[in-house]
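Usage example:
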Amino acid sequence: MLNFNFQNPTHIHFGEGQISVITKEIPLNARVLVVYGGGSIKTNGVFQQVSDALAKHTWFEFSGIEPNPTYNTLMKAQDIIKAENIDYLLAVGGGSVVDGAKFIAAAAEYEGEDPWDIIVKQQPVNKALPIGAVLTLPATGSESNGNSVVTRDGTKIPFSSPLVRPLFAVLDPSVTLSLSDRQISNGVVDAFVHIIEQYLTYSVNGKVQDRFSEGLLQTLIEEGPKALAPATKDDLEVRANIMWSATMALNGLIGAGVPQDWATHMIGHELTGAFGVDHARSLSIVLPSLMQVRREQKREKLLQYAERVWHINEGDDNVRIDQAIKLTVEFFKQMQVPTCLSDVGITDKDIDLLVARLEKHGMNALGEKGDITLDISREILTKAL
Amino acid sequence: MLNFNFQNPTHIHFGEGQISVITKEIPLNARVLVVYGGGSIKTNGVFQQVSDALAKHTWFEFSGIEPNPTYNTLMKAQDIIKAENIDYLLAVGGGSVVDGAKFIAAAAEYEGEDPWDIIVKQQPVNKALPIGAVLTLPATGSESNGNSVVTRDGTKIPFSSPLVRPLFAVLDPSVTLSLSDRQISNGVVDAFVHIIEQYLTYSVNGKVQDRFSEGLLQTLIEEGPKALAPATKDDLEVRANIMWSATMALNGLIGAGVPQDWATHMIGHELTGAFGVDHARSLSIVLPSLMQVRREQKREKLLQYAERVWHINEGDDNVRIDQAIKLTVEFFKQMQVPTCLSDVGITDKDIDLLVARLEKHGMNALGEKGDITLDISREILTKAL
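Running the assembly step on the lines above writes:
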């Protein structure tokens, strides 16, 4: 395996009823800003649990963080942070809310002129407000990593810093029972693709990382559809397994010491930016096609994926790879997400625009070896039609 | 799965040449005590690398920490800590050295009368010197957990505190190339049994934890024998996979949210205490017998273990369980460790003594449900003859 350094200090509190731990996790003398999204936490009981836990704290609210959080919305939080001397952020929501809190936290302590430089000029984050997270939607792993994606003028740009990694995260699977099928399916697919992107590269003989990734993929394949099926969708154990898988999928562990290929995410971002496709659905459209186009480069790992994740042992190499891709597509269909561009109304006429956007965003050397050129991205998009 | 909280902030630096990172990890103004064992680090180049990395630091040495570190040895370190105002410990060695450093760190800051109370009265550790670790023998996971076992008058007693968890750990697989076959085999078997003890209980449907445990077991089964075979024993990838497996085996992750059964360790400790059996070898003797005696209580997990780890799919339940236990024993034999008491010269005449020791040490309610009585431990020991 490759040399690596790995550290993940986020304190995980997992299980039903754990929201109450924020009473002790956040210092009593902190001035807390609770940040959240569209208000679903006010109807599903989560906001009440947070309020109860913060009964003795001084705290304020900032709501309205949208899916794919925008710079403009996030910057509005700076007013209340200054006015109320906020020194602790509590993100209550899914990946978008946690991502948004990270930018708010870094912007609040940014010493340069324009906090947008953190993202567009990748200026280092030297200081940030401390963040805690109460996760309501298992998907992005943002609750225990230092990554964030912010959107401005339709462009999604990531930034990363260990200083914005949440100090603690509450993962209560029971709060996910009120999610819509679409939110659940998006979350499972997003986590699934995160794992694939740290796994489906060339082999460096990282046996622990491979086995862990395969175990997470198998768990999502087993449990994901159950979270949509009427008979099992309220099963708390199903929700718990999905929630823990999604966190483990992107907390740095399975990616430590192995190559990574984030091309599916980068190409998918353009589907979201240009056509408003849900993030996870952009991934389920791009991934099967990327697997086909990169089948030679990823041959060894695709065969391992076929054997260990899908238990495919029959046929020659190409047959086994085809079968593994087919089963991946079937899993996505089971999860009720689109698997090709036509499913979301994107046609061959749109490919030029998508490739132009990739070029504009500097995405001309993607993949684990940086050899996915714009031409290859075009091929991936074309095959995804 | 069960509710849990999990945090592991140890910063892992993994790979060849990583010892040099201690220059930056340890504050330059620290007064460092480098603690180590019998001096093998002086012949294999590790001590030199540590010296080079600490060239600008103020540091001192304390050596002689034995396998199964003793209270008497560890307390001798307090003199130099006081005389030189030591405020940072760097443990360079295997699990015994790291365990020993943990007790030294806690004893140095203990405010009660007798540091032994930390262990024998399980007094809480409120303060401890910071610890860094350079691991030379993959086995115990001590480099990234808060656990320690200290021996006094032939009795091994554990203590635990997050305050003695190393702040960082350097895992350079190339330093393990100078280990003896016996050290390697002991390390692999110790790690294997750590995993089993967090896995082979009753099922709580912790799918991620199960898959991770199975992946680690499979990795050790594949890589362990290679580290002993002449053609592959110097393969750095083999060493890397073993090293990372051993750390992951006991850093808290696979045990979070699932029941645990440490009976094999507790019974094994008496073999070490009474007869000087190597720690890992006490485990390889006890585990197969414990699997036999507890086959009804562990039936579901034993069948899962048979299928997923050993790929046994033929025969009825009892046949599959027998086969899994048989393959476990064969793996231990491949790893060149004893698998029954007669292999180390212990006979039926010694069982009374071992049970009496368990009773003296309060080990009368072992196992994941606390239902392994002294009688059942006797049965396990008898079947291990």
